[in-house]
């Protein structure tokens, strides 16, 4: 790209108000720290209280990116129409059986929000008990959180956030009358768990820093202000949530950070009981407790089981001294999750980079695997809402195969296809090619890269390519079916996912090799993937559009500093780019729980220097940056809006190229962007239009 496709317009000037910060004898200067609102906690709940000077700056940024992208207005409409055309507007899930009913969700044609319904267990008319479109009304933002019916099927607990700040209000609905009761609880994480009788529920309340620090029990008909405090977590570095068992006998309180876990349990039929510890927290000890009737199943990395093993323990005393091995640790086979049923134990695991489902008969220990044919695919274990059943549900897709939903009888091994994702505008898998290649990293490792492209796309180095990456928290990006990316692929793009270190794509060790002092591997893996794709003639460097969000946005910032020549453009969505400043501020919502992932630079000079060496904002330099698009939400409690705002301002000051840095901020949303399904498509259409614009790609898709 020799000539900029953007008009030569002046970018917003960001006032410099230098602030010094000295830690471990090292002084940094932040010229744009003022963009962080002093009252950020209040802004999350009420955006109207944002400092007018900051609001003006953000609005100027939006006006600038609007002007630079003005010539894509029609293209965005076309892209939106294409993506919307691939969605079955009145789509519905396959209802899942639970007692006398089967529960599901659906959309109505033109609807933005989901509707929740139930039918008689074996089929019949749909009874819509919660209509998201009706509840949303004209609100600029609306998202439904947890939706959970009581065990007697007479009441519904549901959460709603209408700011994008992820402070949810819990409400209770009478499923006979459809009226919401007077019982409401504000400032929660969005969900809760009913007690066995349905007379009340357990929930976690968020503090002013957006941390779920207190677990309460609310009895219906009482004032929420008088709710009983069940447990308080005093360690600000730990997350906390609450869950329940499918057979309605236990409440699970889960306390964890990114590498340490502690479970506390209490009987669901005795809300007054105090929670009992399963195994006290030990640094590095992770475990999950799953129901099993008179015993619990425990998925854990105890005793050096890096890729996890499964233990059992009596439900009456599940302390660690009573753990007994059920499925041993096998290096290279990462057990991801486990589900217990009356007669079976089911686990989802990953081996050789691919997921698989294994069914184990509890009485005999005999196992069998549910087999799949394709060499690269995505798998989801939905399980069952019931405990005493032989039928589980799972989903399957690949980059060319639409999602399929199956019921599977664990005893007869019969697999029943319930639903195949419909693409109303049409989809022929034979028009597309999917591949997995291995990119060599500098240290001898190989990085898996999943590819999708149109069969007519020429692989001679001229094709544009969107390279997506994440690489943090052990999250694996599946090679699943994505109807949206077809709008790029049909225009000659290669769509690529780099399965870089920091995820668990190649086992738990792949995650460990991409965190803290080894974080640099995440970035160099991504750059290695880009260089390999160029070497193999899939694309050329000036045709690569790199994309990542949240921690993947940090990846975008880091690689743009490390190898700006390797990419033709960068799309950073809700980017975590001011890593050092955020990790130094323990008042921010997620900072203390994040220290195990990144390190604690407050107490450790070594951690400080490690983070400082890659933190994107701190390493912006006099470099020829490619065009960069940053996208954020004003009320985002996970990656605060001021991080990308500051980053873009510094990029403009220091870049030696004339390529623009655009900052688009949704003033009515948070981390997940727009809440409606079609509103979200408009945001995707914008980023895709940016990708097409910077690559100069023909906007007309090839005939198929």
What does this structure look like?
Strand 27 and strand 28 (404-409) form a beta hairpin. The protein is an alpha+beta fold and 704 residues long. The chain folds into two domains: 19-84 and 426-695, Alpha/Beta hydrolase fold, catalytic domain (Rossmann fold, 3-Layer(aba) Sandwich), CATH 3.40.50; 109-285, 7 Propeller (Methylamine Dehydrogenase, Chain H). It starts with 18 loop residues before the first strand and ends in a 9-residue tail after the last helix. The strands form eight sheets. Strands 30-31-33-32-34-35-36-37 form an eight-stranded mixed sheet, with helices on both faces. It is globular. The longest helix has 19 residues, at 677-695. 19% of the residues lie in helices and 33% in strands. The chain contains 13 helices and 37 strands. Helix 3 packs across helix 13 (677-695) and helix 7 (520-535) packs across helix 8 (551-562). Keywords: Hydrolase, Protease, Serine protease. Residues 14-420 form the Peptidase S9A N-terminal domain. Residues 481-697 form the Peptidase S9 prolyl oligopeptidase catalytic domain. One of its GO terms (molecular function) is serine-type endopeptidase activity. Belongs to the peptidase S9A family.
At a glance:
With about 700 residues, this protein is α+β, with helices and mostly antiparallel strands. Helices cover about 20% and strands about 35% of the residues.
């Amino acid at each position: 790209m020799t000539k900029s496709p953007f008009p030569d317009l002046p970018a917003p000037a960001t006032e410099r108000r230098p602030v010094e910060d000295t830690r471990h004898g090292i002084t940094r200067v932040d010229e744009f720290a003022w963009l962080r609102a002093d009252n950020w906690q209040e802004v999350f709940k009420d955006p109207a209280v944002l400092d007018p000077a900051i609001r003006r700056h953000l609005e100027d940024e939006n006006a600038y990116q609007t002007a630079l992208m003005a010539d894509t207005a029609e293209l965005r409409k076309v892209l939106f129409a294409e993506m919307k055309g691939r969605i079955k507007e009145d789509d519905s899930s396959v209802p899942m059986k639970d007692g006398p009913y089967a529960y599901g969700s659906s959309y109505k044609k033109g609807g933005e929000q989901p509707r929740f319904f139930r039918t008689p267990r074996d089929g019949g008319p749909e009874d819509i008990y919660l209509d998201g479109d009706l509840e949303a009304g004209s609100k600029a933002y609306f998202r439904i959180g947890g939706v959970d019916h009581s065990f007697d099927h007479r009441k519904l607990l549901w959460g709603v956030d209408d700011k994008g700040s992820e402070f949810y209000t819990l409400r209770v609905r009478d499923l006979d009358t459809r009226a919401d009761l007077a019982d409401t609880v504000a400032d929660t994480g969005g969900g809760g768990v009913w007690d066995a009788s349905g007379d009340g529920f357990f929930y976690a309340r968020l503090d002013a820093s957006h941390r779920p620090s207190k677990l309460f029990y609310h009895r219906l008909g009482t004032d929420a202000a008088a709710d009983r405090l069940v447990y308080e977590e005093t360690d600000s570095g730990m997350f906390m949530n609450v869950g329940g068992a499918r057979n309605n006998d236990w409440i699970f309180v889960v306390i964890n950070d990114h590498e340490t876990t502690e479970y506390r349990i209490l009987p669901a039929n005795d809300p007054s009981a105090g929670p009992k510890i399963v195994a006290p927290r030990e640094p590095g000890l992770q475990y999950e407790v799953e129901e099993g009737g008179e015993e619990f199943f425990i998925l854990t990395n105890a005793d050096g089981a890096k890729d996890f093993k499964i233990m059992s323990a009596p439900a009456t005393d599940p302390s660690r001294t009573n753990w007994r091995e059920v499925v041993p640790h096998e290096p290279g086979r990462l057990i991801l999750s486990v589900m217990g049923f009356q007669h079976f134990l089911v686990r989802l695991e990953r081996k050789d980079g691919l997921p698989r489902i294994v069914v184990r008969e509890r009485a005999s220990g005999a196992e069998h695997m549910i087999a799949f044919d394709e060499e690269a695919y995505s798998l989801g274990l939905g399980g069952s809402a019931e405990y005493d059943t032989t039928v589980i549900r799972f989903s399957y897709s690949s980059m060319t195969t639409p999602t399929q939903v199956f019921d599977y009888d664990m005893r007869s091994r019969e697999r029943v296809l319930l639903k195949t994702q419909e693409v109303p505008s049409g989809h022929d898998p034979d028009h597309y090619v999917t591949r997995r290649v291995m990119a060599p990293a500098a240290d001898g490792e190989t990085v898996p890269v999943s590819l999708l492209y149109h069969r007519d796309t020429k692989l001679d180095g001229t094709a544009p390519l969107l390279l997506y990456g994440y690489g943090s928290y052990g999250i694996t990006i599946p090679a699943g079916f994505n109807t949206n990316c077809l709008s790029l692929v049909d225009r000659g793009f290669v769509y690529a996912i780099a399965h870089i270190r920091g995820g668990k794509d190649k086992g738990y060790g792949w995650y460990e090799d991409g965190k803290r002092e080894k974080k640099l591997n995440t970035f160099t893996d991504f750059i290695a993937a880009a260089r390999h794709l160029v070497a193999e003639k899939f694309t050329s460097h000036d045709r690569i559009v790199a994309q990542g969000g949240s921690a993947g946005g940090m990846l975008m910032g880091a690689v743009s500093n490390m190898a700006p020549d390797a990419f033709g453009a960068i799309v950073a969505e809700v980017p975590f780019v001011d890593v050092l400043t955020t990790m130094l501020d323990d008042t921010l919502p997620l900072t203390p729980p994040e220290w195990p992932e990144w390190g604690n630079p407050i107490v450790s000079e070594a951690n400080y220097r490690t983070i400082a060496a890659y933190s994107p904002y701190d390493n912006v330099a006099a470099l020829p940056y490619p065009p960069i698009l940053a996208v954020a939400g004003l009320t985002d409690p996970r990656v605060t809006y001021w991080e990308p705002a500051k980053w873009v301002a510094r990029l403009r000051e220091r870049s030696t190229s004339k390529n623009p840095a655009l900052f688009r901020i949704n003033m009515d949303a948070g981390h997940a962007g727009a809440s409606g399904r079609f509103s979200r498509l408009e945001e995707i259409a914008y980023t895709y239009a940016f990708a097409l614009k910077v690559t100069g790609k023909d906007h007309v898709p090839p005939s198929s």
